[in-house]
């Protein structure tokens, strides 16, 4: 039995060359066929932390150049540096992405995680600079609004949110930053966002976050993430009400799950409407990403012995099992998870990579079982980050539908902001995973071992 992988590979190459020169077919008698190189389409194998960070850095540099922090005159485009001169003609300078959309709330959280994983202050500074900018200009726009004047729609979304989309993800990211750096001046923005979330958002009679579209009393799986993490984080931000906010977060997770989790598939349906006799189950990829991300966010802040925490962990594990069963051959998950003729979608894939890697790192799920799933998923995400740092293959914003065509034919676009935060978050958690786990290729497969392996040769018997 050959023990040296490099030697075996060379012999394999030599056998193939000899067979080709003699016009013999490559077969089991003249070639070790198990060493033939697979035709992977999106990459395979063990990745390094340095390789992951290179992908992340491209995204960071692209976003730094395409999300400016300036106020301009909407008529002339001139930059306003004296914020006391902000008037009804003033607006945030338009970049490729909005600074306070829910997608950018995800991006800010991802930037903070990227700093934690890499120590590179550029990631933290990206979030802090924009938080400080928004906090500084907000009072001037608020004054105009209080005077009854029209203000920049982007600032109106910040100051007068009308949906969880406007408030939850940005609020959560600002709370995280404030807990890390109490010197940030974001208190007023956090309080304004959270007042909407906890006091003004529409709810079902049992308190579950809900919407009035497309039908009255509709639950959107997306709203797990748009609302619940900020409530859980507020338990750490306002310790005088920790018990209340933690209880509310747990209640919301379980009430969503009771209506929307489909146990036989281990997946969530995208929509649920009160009063419907039957509930079509369209397992939309990104919405399932929001659901598992919510569970990770809540578990991160709940005390270990908090009532209901065990139920959320069990729900997360059931969801992970369902998701892992749906991963495609190229590492991606599909737009509709259980329909592999729907397209491969990047934002959902990145969300699952982050959440599963995070769950492994936290000890909630088994690295041996799910580490290879995560690694394959990262290869897919990496393949979607182009040379400019744009994230490709991302479904645009999507409402709720009750037929498959609605989901199958949603467009993809590099300016769909939903892909950037998840890709960065996935990369950050992959770096942590690589540093904490014992990963190696053995017999061509990516495997996670419980202890370091002391040999570079193939392992045919683990001791």
Adjacency order of strands in the biggest sheet: 2-1-3
Coarse shape: globular
- Kindly report how far apart the N and C termini lie: 19 Å
Give the integer mean of the pLDDT values: 94
Number of helical elements: 15
Tell me about the biggest sheet?
3 strands, antiparallel
- The proportion of residues in beta strands is 5-15%
Can you describe what's shown?
The protein is mainly alpha-helical and 463 residues long. The strands form five sheets. A three-stranded antiparallel beta sheet has the order 2-1-3. It contains 15 helices and eleven strands.
Write a short abstract of this structure.
This protein has 15 helices and eleven strands.
Give the helices and strands, then pairings.
Blueprint: H1 5-21, H2 49-66, E1 71-73, E2 79-80, E3 90-92, H3 102-118, H4 121-146, H5 153-159, H6 164-180, H7 187-200, E4 218-220, H8 222-237, H9 242-260, E5 261-262, E6 267-268, E7 271-273, H10 285-301, H11 309-324, E8 333-334, E9 344-345, H12 346-362, H13 367-383, H14 404-408, H15 420-436, E10 438-442, E11 445-449
Helix pairs in contact: 2-15, 3-4, 3-6, 3-15, 4-5, 6-7, 6-8, 8-9, 8-10, 9-11, 10-11, 10-12, 12-13, 12-15, 13-15
List keywords for this structure.
52% helix, 7% strand, 463 residues, mainly alpha, three-stranded antiparallel β-sheet, 11 strands, globular
């Amino acid at each position: 039995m050959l023990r040296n992988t490099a030697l075996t590979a060379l012999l394999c190459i030599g056998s193939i060359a000899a067979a080709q020169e003699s016009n013999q077919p490559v077969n089991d008698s003249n070639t070790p066929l198990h060493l033939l190189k697979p035709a992977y389409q999106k990459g395979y194998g063990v990745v390094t932390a340095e390789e992951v960070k290179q992908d992340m850095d491209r995204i960071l540099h692209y976003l730094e150049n395409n999300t400016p922090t300036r106020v301009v005159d909407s008529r002339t485009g001139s930059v306003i540096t004296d914020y006391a001169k902000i008037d009804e003609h003033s607006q945030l300078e338009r970049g490729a992405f909005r600074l306070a959309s829910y997608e950018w709330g995800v991006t800010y959280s991802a930037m903070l995680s990227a700093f934690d994983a890499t120590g590179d202050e550029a990631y933290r500074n990206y979030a802090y600079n924009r938080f400080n900018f928004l906090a500084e200009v907000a009072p001037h726009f608020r004054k105009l609004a209080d005077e009854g004047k029209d203000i920049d729609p982007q600032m109106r979304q910040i100051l007068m949110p009308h949906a969880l989309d406007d408030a939850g993800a940005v609020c959560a990211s600002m709370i995280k930053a404030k807990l890390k750096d109490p010197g940030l001046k974001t208190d007023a923005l956090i309080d304004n966002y959270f007042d909407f979330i906890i006091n003004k958002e529409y709810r079902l009679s049992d308190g579950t976050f809900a919407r009035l579209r497309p039908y009255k009393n509709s639950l959107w799986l997306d709203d797990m993430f748009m609302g619940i993490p900020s409530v859980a984080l507020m338990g750490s931000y306002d310790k005088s009400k920790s018990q209340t906010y933690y209880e509310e977060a747990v209640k919301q997770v379980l009430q969503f799950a009771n209506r929307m989790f489909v146990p036989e598939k281990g997946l969530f349906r995208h929509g649920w409407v009160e009063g419907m006799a039957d509930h079509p189950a369209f397992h939309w990829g990104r919405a399932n990403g929001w659901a598992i991300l919510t569970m990770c966010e809540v578990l991160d802040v709940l005390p270990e012995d908090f009532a209901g925490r065990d139920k959320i962990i069990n729900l997360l594990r059931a969801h992970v099992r369902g998701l892992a069963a749906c991963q495609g051959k190229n590492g991606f998950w599909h737009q509709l998870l259980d329909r592999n003729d729907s397209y491969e979608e990047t934002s959902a894939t990145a969300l699952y990579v982050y959440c599963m890697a995070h769950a492994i790192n936290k000890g909630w799920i088994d690295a041996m079982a799910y580490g290879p799933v995560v690694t394959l998923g990262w290869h897919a995400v990496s393949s979607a980050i182009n040379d400019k740092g744009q994230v490709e293959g991302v479904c645009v914003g999507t409402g709720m539908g009750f037929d498959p065509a609605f989901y199958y034919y949603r467009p993809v676009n590099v300016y769909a902001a939903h892909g950037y935060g998840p890709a960065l978050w996935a990369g950050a958690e992959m770096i942590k995973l690589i540093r904490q786990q014992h990963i190696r290729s053995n017999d061509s497969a990516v495997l996670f071992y419980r202890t370091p392996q002391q040999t570079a040769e193939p392992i045919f018997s683990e001791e």
